[in-house]
Amino acid sequence: MTQSHPRISKAVIPAAGLGTRFLPATKATPKEMLPVVDKPAIQYVVEEAAAAGLDDVLMVTGRNKRPLEDHFDRNYELESALGRKGDAARLAKVQESSDLATMHYVRQGDPKGLGHAVLCAAPHVGDEPFAVLLGDDLIDPRDPLLRRMIEVQERHGGSVVALMEVAPEQIHLYGCAAVEATTDSDVVRVSGLVEKPDAADAPSHYAVIGRYVLDPAVFGILRKTEPGRGGEIQLTDALQQLAADETVGGPVHGVVFKGRRYDTGDRGDYLRAIVRLACEREDLGPDFRTWLRRYVTEEMQQP
Ligand code: UTP
């Protein structure tokens, strides 16, 4: 059934986690600022929001928030130095990140979990559906996901999560969804969610990844959600309540994503993201691929 909903225009980007998996790099720098080739991971995420038509971005920051704010602000000193040199290409690169969207910031005092970070966005978001993009989750720009999720939300109302099929031995790293098929092959109805289950208890192979389109009813639930796994207020627990009772905030659907996605907070995935994106870059790719091919061949000859 097609319903009428307010157009989604706001994106919330939680970027206040401690990033302990990436210490010591993240001791004084947010993990979202680590470069993927030559852009900080967070810039890809803001570019993705802007490409999906979300021009109002609220970033939830924590300690060490300065580099994040500075990156999306103007840098007049650098701009005038490049301008004086006539270096238009680099000047454009400096200005790119400050022209993407209207940026807002809110501080999450204590990193009490992703659910708590999302709750910090409530006064800014108000009573309209909104998108959440995790600042350390990179979706390859060639595999658009968010636009499809917004389409599904506009069609069904309620909330939409992004799902990816993972191997059973990986499911304990993610939130996992119990699902029912719909008439769209890439869309499922979510009937339940559990955070980081053991493989034996997992209701499916569908892992929740870092993109959400949420009904504002989630805020009321988060206000009452007690800390769950790891002592953190879990977004998955609030989504489970939405899925269990659709009279609260409408149904929960899942869009099954088959594209390329990297968890840049995980060192292995971070390296894979850099290699893949560097290989495909027009400027760096040809030389880098030649080197990589030679390197891999040499490695394979090692005993
Ligand atoms: P992670 O689960 O990756 O946790 O958070 P983390 O603390 O950032 O990293 P590790 O596990 O210690 O290495 C997923 C997303 O939720 C945000 C993070 O910034 C990341 O984008 N987050 C998490 C918050 O904004 N606040 C929190 O309290 C927790």
From TrEMBL:
Stored InterPro entries: GalU_uridylyltTrfase_bac/arc (IPR005771), NTP_transferase_dom (IPR005835), Nucleotide-diphossugar_trans (IPR029044)
Pfam families: NTP_transferase (PF00483)
Keyword Transferase: yes
Top-level taxonomic group: Bacteria
GO BP, sorted A to Z: UDP-alpha-D-glucose metabolic process
Gene3D superfamilies, alphabetized: Spore Coat Polysaccharide Biosynthesis Protein SpsA, Chain A
One function term, GO molecular function aspect: UTP:glucose-1-phosphate uridylyltransferase activity
UniProt keyword annotations, A-Z: Nucleotidyltransferase, Transferase
Family annotation (CDD domains): UGPase_prokaryotic
Residue span(s) of domain Nucleotidyl transferase: 10-275
EC top class named in words: transferase
Family: Belongs to the UDPGP type 2 family.
Protein name (record): UTP--glucose-1-phosphate uridylyltransferase
Organism of provenance: Streptomyces prasinopilosus
Phylogenetic placement of the source organism: Bacteria, Bacillati, Actinomycetota, Actinomycetes, Kitasatosporales
